[in-house]
């Protein structure tokens, strides 16, 4: 069985900013429902994140350097949890200045 990976992050200006896994924290990925690899560009099945703006979301899928493939938004956090997730992202930014 090939289990999908889970990714936690916040949607900022329509982009998915990752918090977890730790190895990807602070990076951005685009989401597509397309399986990889496909002959078509992943943009054809891109998940537009505008409806999740400012919210923490949990996504299942398979990530590469740009995309999370076979992506599914499996949970959207409420206001309180989103505040906590944003604080964690801020702490990561402070701990790892650019």
Dominant shape: globular
* Residue share in helix: 10-25%
> Could you name the ranges where pLDDT drops below 50 across 5 or more consecutive residues?
none
Give the strand content: 35-45%
- What is the β-strand count? 5
Number of domains: 1
Radius of gyration: 13 Å
Note the total helix count: 1
Structural class assignment: alpha+beta
Q: Sketch the topology as an H/E string, one letter per element.
A: EEEEEH
In brief:
The chain is of the alpha+beta class and about 100 residues long. It is about 15% helix and about 35% strand.
Record the SSE blueprint.
Blueprint: E1 5-12, E2 15-20, E3 28-31, E4 56-63, E5 67-76, H1 79-95
Parallel strand pairs: 3-5
Antiparallel strand pairs: 1-2, 1-4, 2-3, 4-5
What can you see in these coordinates?
The structure is a single chain. The protein has one helix spanning 79-95, and strands at 5-12, 15-20, 28-31, 56-63, 67-76. It is of the alpha+beta class and 98 residues long. The termini are far apart. The protein contains 1 helix and 5 strands, in the order E-E-E-E-E-H. The protein has one domain (5-95).
């Amino acid at each position: 069985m090939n289990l999908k990976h889970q990714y936690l992050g916040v949607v900022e200006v329509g982009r998915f900013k990752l918090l977890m896994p730790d190895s990807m924290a602070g990076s951005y990925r685009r989401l597509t429902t397309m399986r990889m690899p496909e002959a078509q560009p992943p943009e054809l099945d891109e998940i537009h994140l505008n409806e999740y703006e400012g919210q923490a979301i949990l996504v299942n899928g398979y990530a590469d350097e740009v995309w999370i493939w076979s992506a599914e938004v499996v949970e959207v956090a409420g206001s309180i949890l989103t505040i906590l997730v944003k604080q964690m992202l801020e702490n990561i930014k402070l701990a790892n200045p650019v």
